[in-house]
Specification:
Helix content: 25-40%
Bound molecules: 2'-monophosphoadenosine-5'-diphosphate
CATH superfamily of the largest domain: Leucine Dehydrogenase, chain A, domain 1
Shape: globular
CATH topology of the largest domain: Rossmann fold
Structural class: alpha/beta
Largest sheet: 6 strands, mixed
Distance between the termini: 28 Å
Order of helices and strands: EHEHEHEHEEHEHEHEEEHEHH
Number of helices: 10
Strand order of the largest sheet: 2-1-3-5-6-4
Strand content: 15-25%
Number of domains: 2
CATH class of the largest domain: Alpha Beta
Length: 274
């Protein structure tokens, strides 16, 4: 029940009406009994700083930040965590009791947590990251922090791979021949989003590699299906989405919500749309 004491978190973005965040976060708040709720605010490009100011004015306790605001918010908050500083990107804002704002980037660590939750040992492992966009950069940064020994970046545009490789000492520009020895393969490209395309030749997939896709529309991508056929273990795109939200909510409320409840809410929301 919403009362006069209920705290508000909001997702800001444009577009934002398709966001799964309110459904995921509300399930999380319910799982801990935190008296919080979440709504979505459509905030136009260029207005992110004003949204952060509105947090202070209205006492909005937390923001989840999505396209196109992550870089602007990183510049608008008073303090950031290490990942946000490295990426110049913030996906989470906390309004602290003293009225100051703290920005974090939970996407990459959320991905790492989803991999660990699937039982994969990342320390000293090797990874291949397909793609070098913003999502890839957060994942590469977090894989490096998680103790992965080698992160090979494979991207259509080599220059972007080179830039992403600068994020971590263990990252480098790689090639598809790196897939053979990898513990983990993650697709961060948009290939397979709403289509049946696969980002790499499925013949490279094999038992013993864990294949993760951050695409969640469809949830069971052609890449994940091909991976299962090849005998590989898979992690779908809700893994990262849910686990980055778990970290956001811990930052806002101090309580760790139940990832299973949040995932179930995301699945129900996706099913309701289908
Ligand atoms: P995001 O913020 O989701 O990471 P992005 O920054 O636009 O999105 O990055 C999209 C990624 O998907 C990039 O790595 C892009 O490759 P380029 O850097 O060469 O543009 C990759 N990508 C998109 N469409 C692709 C396609 N058809 N084939 C291969 N890679 C593709």
């Amino acid at each position: 029940m919403i009362t006069a004491r209920t705290r508000l978190a909001a997702v800001i973005g444009d577009p934002v009406r398709h966001s799964l965040s309110p459904a995921i976060h509300r399930a999380g708040f319910e799982s801990t009994g935190a008296d919080w709720t979440m709504v979505a605010f459509e905030v136009a490009a260029g207005d992110a700083r004003r949204a952060v100011e509105a947090m202070r004015t209205l006492g909005i306790g937390g923001l989840s930040v999505t396209m196109p605001h992550k870089a602007d918010v990183a510049a608008a908050v008073e303090e950031v965590d290490d990942a946000a500083a490295a990426l110049a990107s913030v996906n989470t804002v906390v309004l602290r009791d003293d009225g100051t704002t703290f920005g974090a980037s939970t996407d990459g660590q959320g991905f790492v947590d989803s991999v660990i939750a699937s039982g994969v040992e990342l320390t000293h492992s090797t990874a291949v990251v397909l793609g070098a966009g913003a999502a890839a950069r957060s994942i590469i940064d977090a894989l490096g922090r998680a103790g992965v020994a080698d992160v090979a970046i494979v991207n259509r545009t080599t220059e972007r791979a080179r830039s992403a490789a600068e994020l971590s000492d263990v990252a480098r520009v790689g090639g598809l021949d790196d897939v053979g020895a990898a513990t983990l393969l993650v697709n961060t490209t948009s290939v397979g989003m709403g289509t049946d395309e696969v980002p790499i030749d499925p013949r490279l997939l094999r038992a013993g590699i864990v294949v993760a896709d951050i695409v969640y529309h469809p949830l069971d991508t052609a890449l994940l299906r091909a991976a299962r056929t090849a005998g590989a273990d898979t992690i779908d795109g809700l893994g990262m989405l849910v686990h980055q939200a778990v970290l956001q909510q811990e930052l806002w409320t101090g309580h760790r919500p139940d990832p299973a409840a949040m995932r179930a809410a995301a699945e129900a929301e996706l099913a309701a749309r289908a």
